[in-house]
Amino acid sequence: MPIKKSAIKELRKSKKREKVRSSKNRAIKDIIKKIHKAVEAEKIDEAKKMALIAVKLLDKAEKTHLMHKNTAARNKSRIHKAIKKAQPKK
User: Fold this and answer.
1) Helix/strand/coil for 43
2) Distances, alpha carbon 28 to alpha carbons 46, 64, 89, in Å
3) What is the domain partition of the chain in residue ranges?
4) Which of 3, 18, 68, 76 is most buried, judged by most C-beta within 10 A?
């Protein structure tokens, strides 16, 4: 347990940041899982709508340095690839 006043405040700030970051990461992971479930159930329209939300969340995570830009790009790419693969061929 910190003793100095500044260390106590820093610990408080750190815990607050951790809560925010973990909730944002959880939201991203949840929506990606929902997209993959929708793709498996062949609900392409629903998956496309959720993909837009996921891309928005990933872009925000990248912008706020919550996630590395390559990780965000890889996740977006995998989402779009899964949706495209599930679409019926013309």
Assistant:
1) coil
2) 16, 14, 29
3) 5-86
4) 76
CATH (residue range 5-86)? 1.20.58.110
Q: CA–CA separation, 60 vs 53, rounded Å?
A: 11
pLDDT score of 1 = 78
Q: How does DSSP classify residue 90?
A: -
Q: How far is CA 32 from CA 7, 13, 50, 58, in A?
A: 37, 29, 8, 10
d(CA 47, CA 30): 13
Angle between helix 69-86 and 44-63 (nearest 10): 170
- Which parts of the chain have pLDDT scores under 50? none
Q: Among 70, 29, 35, 28, which Cα is nearest to 50's? A: 35
Task: Record the tokens describing residue 62, joined without a space.
Answer: 């990248």
Instruction: Give me 89's structure tokens.
Output: 């061929």
